[in-house]
Amino acid sequence: MKKALSLLFVLILSLSFVSCGRSTVSHSPGSEPALPSVTDALGNTVSLPLNARVVSCYASFTDCWLLSGGSVVGVTDDAVEEGIVSSDQALSVGSVKHVNLEQVLSLNPDYVILSADLAAHLQLEAALKAARICYGYFRVDTFGDYRDLMKQFCAVNGGRDRYDTYVTDVETQIRSVLNRIPENTESSVLLLRVYSTGMKAKTDDNLAGQILKELGLRNVADETPSLLEDLSVEKILLEDPDYIVFLTMGDEVAAMAFLQQNVENHPAWTGLSAVKNETCFLLPKDLFHYKPNERWGESYEYLAKRIYPEIFGE
Known about the structure:
Helices cover about 45% and strands about 15% of the residues. It is of the alpha/beta class. The protein folds into two domains: about 35-170, Nitrogenase molybdenum iron protein domain (Rossmann fold); about 180-310, Rossmann fold, CATH 3.40.50.1980. α7 (about 145-155) packs antiparallel against α8 and α8 (about 160-180) packs parallel to α16. The protein starts with a helix and ends with a helix.
């Protein structure tokens, strides 16, 4: 009877340490430090071992994981296309918007990294939970978001020195830019995202908008919400911002063709102050469309030079 009770106790104890379908060895208090944990944007907290088998389904987060000292066994195609990993370093698990769940599960991962902003990723949660696979949904729109993410990733991967290099040093670079920005500037800006079939005004819900705000510019779309829904050259002319900044989405050549044909060829376009003063410019994708990660400082410097050339010596 005692033997049966002992076996039952061991079984219950072992089950109590199962996390996401994986067993975690228990230790007596004080014998070994607890495994570092990661909390995602949705509040899910997971403890991960060093050298965890990770599948990352978003290129920017793949880059962050590698910068922190981790490795990946599976990635989506965007990580290969952007040169973050080579095709022989990790197995493809599909595209960023069409993740192949079967491929993910075949890699027997300890953790799957996903984007909290993609509906296709959110739809994977139930299946991963049913398979008892640990996962995390993340979101990075600002340098602060990147810093928080890297703090967790570096803790898991033992990358304290990497945190100093890829976060602390970058933050110092950003601070050196912001400390030189004049106070109480009254300059205005309109940030436009251009597609092959249209364009939209943007506020600070993206990294370029956030940086422009930190650089002291007033986004006219914040004060005129109608620009977010119904954008036209005539409305831009009424606002007449000091700066007009473009981002492209998708095929950049096609987006710029749309811009030239439907916006720049408009008779009123040349009357805008930003066009006359040559303060109308396109942002490079590597610093403003994709998450810049360790290059956040360069993103701040790029815009500071365009907005304040007299200070930053463009």
